[in-house]
Each structure stands twice: as C-alpha cells, then as structure tokens.
Write a structure and sequence with these properties.
This protein is of the alpha+beta class. It has 3 domains: 109 residues, no CATH class; 86 residues; 212 residues, no CATH class. Helix content is 39%, strand content 13%. The strands form 5 sheets. A 6-stranded antiparallel beta sheet has the order 4-3-2-7-6-8. A 3-stranded antiparallel beta sheet has the order 13-15-14. Helix 5 packs antiparallel against helix 6, helix 9 packs antiparallel against helix 13 and helix 9 packs across helix 15.
C-alpha cells in the first residue's frame, strides 16, 4: 500500500473526540478558581478554593464520560494532528504522519497534569494512550475490521474479501482485552512507560532523611525509627522500656549518620538520645521498684522522676551561690524561702514554717535577710512569726522574679514547686533528726547527701563517694568539722557505713528508711 493510499484510508475514518476541563485562577491574589469545560454548552463555574474546584472538575468530567458513548472502532486518534509522542513527523508534512505509528484498539482515555490544573478526555489508540504516563483508560472499543483499501490499490478486492483480525499491539489498558499478539513485521512496537521507582521517605527528630543517604540500611533504619517514634506517641499508655530501646537505636543510627556526613549536630543528637535512653530506663526502674543492682529491692521515692531530682539539685546549688547572709542557719532558711517562691519570686509563709527549723534567733535572722534586700514582706517580723495558715504572710524575693527578657532562674512547672518544697521539709524535718536536736548544719548535710547518691543509696553516682570539701562548704563548716556532722547523721539512723578516704572522699550509704527521699544521680 502506498502512502497516498494510507492517507486516503485515514481520511475515510472519523476523527476521535477530545475535550478538556480546566482549573484556572478566578482573580489575582485570591483563592477562588474558575472551572471551564471544552464541550459546548458548559458554562464556567467559579468556586471558592482549588480543592473544591478540583472536586467539581473531576465530577464534571465523570458526568461527560458517563453520558458519552463508548470509543468507536472506526475513529482515529484525536491527538494525531497534535504532535504527541507517537505522531512525530518522519517525512512529509505534519498532517501526513505515517498511520503505522498507531496501534492497538481505540480507547477512551483521560490524561491530566501533575499539578491538577486540567483533565483531558480523548479517543485514541492504545499506543497513544501508553505514551502518556498519566493516562487512565475508561473504555476500550470492540475489535473491528480493517479500513477499506484505497481505490486503485492492487489486491484491494482480495483484502476486502478476506479481512484479517486487527492486531493487538502495545500495552492493553482494559482488563477485558485479550493478550497482545506479536507485533507485525515492519511496525515498531510501542514502548511501555518506564515504571517509577518509589523511594521511601521519612522524617526523624524534625529532620528529613535524605533520599540519597548511603548506606541504604542506615536510611531505612532512620525512616523506621521515625515511624516507630510517631507510633509510640499515639500509645494510650507509656512503655518506658520500649522508649529506652528506641532512644538507644536512635543514638546508634545518628552516630553512624554523623560519621557519614561529618555533621557535629548529628553527633550531639546521638549523645542526647543516649541520655534520654538512660533516663527512660531509670524512670522505669523507679516506677516499678526495680533496683539497677538487681537485688530485688523496691523503693518508692517521694520525688519519682529524674527531672524532679535535677530540679532539687538546681535549687540547692542556687541557694549556695545566692544566700546573702553567712552561716548554716541563714542557708537553711534560704532553702525554705526559695522553695516557697521559686517560680514567680512571691509566695506565702506562716510562723510555724520558720519555728520548725533549728534556728537560734529566727527574728534576728529574718531581719538580716530583709536588711540585705534579699527578702521583703509587709508588716513586721513579729507579725510574720505569729501568722497562721488561715492568714499567711506574703513574701517576695526579688532575685527570683522573672525579668522582662525571660523567666527567672527556675523553669519547672507550678505543680512541681510544692512537690519540691514538701520533699525539702520532709528531709530537714525528719523525725529522728528532730529528736536528736540536730542543728542547721546537720540538716544541710542531710539535704546534700540525699541528692548525691546512686539508685541503691550509696554515696556518689556509682557509689565511689562524695568530695568532702564541697560538702563542708555547703554545710558552712571546715572540712575537719564534717566528721562530727556525719557522726550525728549516723546516730540518727540516716547514714551507715560512713568512712573518709585518704583522697578526700566521703563514702557510705543512706539507710533503708531514708531511701524514699533520695534523688539518685543518673
């Protein structure tokens, strides 16, 4: 068959149908959109947002597809004259592209752009539909006989008398279509669309895992950890053992990530994850009463959390640096007043709170704190000492008040402050310490040792002991005088197995009865 005969045959076929539904901005700078259709009689619609517009556009196109008849076997591609992938110009004018480039049955397909701005329905062959990556076939035309041969073509009558079934060339988009037959010789086979490789994406610790991160095993581990952390946040009840394991895996993965990329921040994130893993495990042990030493002991602590233990140590350190009046009694009173007004610099105080402390002359001591400007309150000292719980005296410590540029020295919550205050009063007001009439320096030593133990009550983080000089400075005594204070704590059944080492350490263990008020070092 000559090219002229082929073109003549195509001209006797009907042109494929095609129409488009578009989504365009309705006004500059606004969110409204205009939905327009290429079919005659369809008036544009103005809708308030792109999401609503997309829904309306898809529904409008679906209505046309349901109302339209199926694809016609005698139709040629609606995109044949528009230079699609299969209708490229080889030799001759654009409108005389070889018909042999088409293949397969006629289908009714829908294509759209990735941004969701237009949707186009068209009648075309299966090969042309395959050339569009976004094409979705709605219907497939039944098989039909070949196009009539051109006039004057040799053997035209023989071909009309013995029609041959159409070849199913290229990918079939309909599940009802038969399996594709071999491609006839001389007709190029359709190139199937290249499958897109889906790359798994993920995010962990507010960081997007790079898609090109190698090794691939590290990338998969980071993505999986991010998913596991998000799933853990949806749990109705916490599982601190699982959380500790997740943080341990995160620390290992971030350390490897830091080695691959050389980023210092990733290494720091790994260190924070290690600390979080240790804290979660320790908190689990404290909540369940498990001892890290594995001796089966159960301890229910007054302050059950690692964070609260750190807050207790922070308050004692702040008082040591900011007590305006020297002496153990002034420091012990400063601890009480600081805990009463830690968050806002203001609080309430009654006379019994002060009289319950081992103070030689509380009236004179409070007067010195007021004269130094560290403490203020309305009325006189006598009125403060006579105040009762139903009418407490408001006090103010200016150094604890939040400034204009941020909060005060402490950042724990309002519910934490009374817990810390109750913990300190429980320590300094211990029944046996009161019965032995211990002084303020002994009570300060009890506070210091309570926040410097291991989980099983041994002094020091790992039971290695506590340095003597800082302890003596906190208790406002000379290092030589610390031994007498330790002896008083031992007699009061607060401390046992106490000994001073040659390298300046105090070793020992808190007794079983005072373990609930201890704040172990992590």
């Amino acid at each position: 068959m000559t090219v002229e005969g082929t073109v003549s045959g195509l001209e006797e076929r009907v042109a494929g149908r095609a129409w488009m539904v578009r989504l365009d901005p309705a006004d500059r700078g606004g969110t409204a959109v205009r939905v327009s259709c290429g079919r005659p009689g369809c008036a544009p619609q103005v809708l308030p947002s792109a999401a609503v517009g997309r829904t309306a556009a898809v529904a409008h196109l679906a209505t046309h597809l349901r109302a339209a008849s199926g694809p016609r076997p005698e139709a040629y591609c609606a995109c044949r004259a528009e230079d699609c992938h299969t209708h490229v110009r080889t030799d001759g004018p654009r409108d005389r592209a070889p018909a042999s480039r088409c293949g397969g049955p006629v289908v009714l397909a829908v294509i759209n752009d990735r941004q969701g701005r237009w949707w186009r329905a068209l009648e075309c062959c299966a090969r042309c539909a395959a050339a569009h990556p976004s094409a979705k076939v709605v219907a497939t035309a039944p098989a039909a006989g070949p196009a009539p041969a051109a006039a004057g073509s040799p053997a035209g009558g023989a071909r009309a008398a013995a029609p041959r079934p159409p070849a199913q060339i290229g990918p079939q988009f309909s599940h009802a279509a038969s399996a594709p037959a071999p491609v006839p010789e001389g007709v190029p086979a359709a190139r199937p669309p290249r499958p897109r490789r889906k790359r798994r994406s993920g995010k962990i610790a507010q960081r997007i895992v790079p898609f090109d991160l190698h090794p691939v095993a590290l990338r998969e581990e980071l993505i999986e950890l991010g998913d596991l952390f998000r799933a853990y946040q949806q749990r109705p009840e916490p599982d601190l053992v699982e959380l500790s394991e997740l943080h341990s895996r995160k620390a290992k993965a971030f350390r490897t990530w830091a080695e691959v990329t050389g980023e210092t921040e990733l290494r720091l994130e790994a260190e924070r994850a290690e600390q979080a893993a240790a804290a979660a495990l320790l908190q689990h042990q404290q909540r369940t009463g498990q001892s890290p030493a594995g001796d089966g002991q159960v301890t229910s602590r007054l302050l059950p959390g690692l964070t609260q233990w750190d807050h207790a140590r922070a308050i004692l350190a702040h008082v040591a640096e900011h007590t305006p009046v020297p002496g153990a009694e002034a420091r012990l009173l400063a601890v009480l007043l600081t805990l009463r007004s830690a968050l806002t610099g203001t609080g309430n105080l009654v006379g019994q709170d002060v009289r319950g402390l081992p103070l030689t002359d509380p009236e004179e001591l409070i007067g010195r704190l007021v004269e130094s400007g560290w403490l203020s309150f309305p009325g006189t000292v006598e009125e403060l000492l006579a105040s009762r719980p139903e009418s407490p005296t408001p006090i103010t410590i200016p150094s604890l008040m939040p400034g204009e540029d941020g909060p005060g020295p402490f950042v724990f919550g309002r519910k934490t402050r009374p817990k810390l205050s109750g913990w300190a009063q429980r320590v300094v007001g211990d029944k046996k310490l009161r019965k032995k009439r211990t002084g303020a320096d002994v009570r300060l030593l009890a506070l210091a040792l309570a926040v410097r133990t291991s989980a099983d009550g041994r002094l020091g983080a790992d039971g290695e002991g506590v340095e003597v000089e800082p302890l003596a400075a906190w208790c406002c005594v000379e290092p030589e005088g610390l031994e007498a204070l330790v002896e008083q704590l031992t007699v009061a059944d607060w401390l046992t197995d106490a000994e001073f080492t040659a390298d300046g350490l105090l070793r020992g263990r808190l007794t079983e009865r005072v373990l609930p008020v201890s704040c172990p070092l992590a």
